[in-house]
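Trying the structure run again after the queue cleared.
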Amino acid sequence: MIPTDPVEIMYHCPEEEIAFGPSCWLWDYLRRSRASGFLLPLSGGADSSSVAAIVGCMCQLVIKDIDKGDEQVKADAARIGQYRDGEFPTDSRELAKRLFYTVYMGTENSSEDTRSRAKRLAEEIGSFHFDVPIDSVVSAFLSLFERLTGKRPHYKVDGGSHTENLGLQNIQARIRMVLAFMMASLMPWVHSKSGFYLVLGSSNVDEGLRGYLTKYDCSSADINPIGSVSKQDLRAFLRWAAVNLQYSSLAEVEAAPPTAELEPIRTDYSQLDEVDMGMTYEELSIYGRLRKIFRCGPVSMFQNLCHRWCGRLSPSEVADKVKHFFKYYAINRHKMTVLTPSYHAESYSPEDNRFDLRQFLYNSTWPYQFRKIDQLVQDIDKDGKWVEDRRADSQLRQHGAARPAQGGGMGVVAAGSANPSVGL
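Done. Tokens:
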């Protein structure tokens, strides 16, 4: 036998992995489930726009394989798209029009920026797009609540309490979930098509870890292609997709500050995700990797970050950040048990049922661990070494130099920790 020519190994960059992996997963799920397509609540933000771009990439890959002569893909596409008389798709945008519904569900709190971004992205991909105002549905729920209780809640910017503010945000989010599933089940009937559509979720891994999502909102769906991808990686993907998938509107999506748009916009107030969470997405990504990959609990994470953030934050500031994260991680852990099934290709996923078998009921005060962190802060302050390290680090920065790494990457040996992978 004559040996075949050697195959050159091709390594995809992370952005390509996010584009191609979930795209193939979505197509495989679509053809195996016998569904007729996907429906996505498209807010114009980074997460839902990433999912939309992945579906668009799926359509592009299908057309490429058909052009290459893949008869199986051609037959699947003709069946799913319900083509007749031997016809088959030849254009990705035309295929998307048949397979993909996108729905912008705006309220009085939504901005024209997100509405226009959603519309432009839908046009670039080719999806069948709807712009559905849901204020009347929100108002109906609030009127019903007022008749039942005699009280009407108000947003915090209008003098309402934290409880009122949260309740008003959650009802908007949950209405969107109900409407999404209703449209997914009935739109094929409206357009005289057979079958059903699968609802796509768009919550990223960081929101799941922090619990920064409404239980049973648009994070609840049939499947979620970005459920194990961090916000930082998604932003890099958006920049890549704007050029390589030719969805230019994604550049504007990536540049916009993340916001849920669930509170009223005022001249002196605009809701921002990172302000609401009390931490940045960059910090949250670090917490997630330390917690999952290196098995860090509160104490070992504090020790590791003392080393990592030396010269930028004091031990007490690091302690406050670690405590804040683990407090909300514990409080919201129950949300992990109902996460939408997701595509998994990362090692930092917080998904309970498949990849992370830790308990989901924690004591949110972490009494032993937080006391240990306080003790370590006192020991470091008493030792004085931190002040010397911080001064030395500041001098290095002034001269354009960097502190030499003692371990490299996320696995550095932290202050007072023999092994960052050992969690307490």
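Strands lie at 37-41, 100-106, 128-133, 197-199. Worth checking whether this holds up in the mutant runs.
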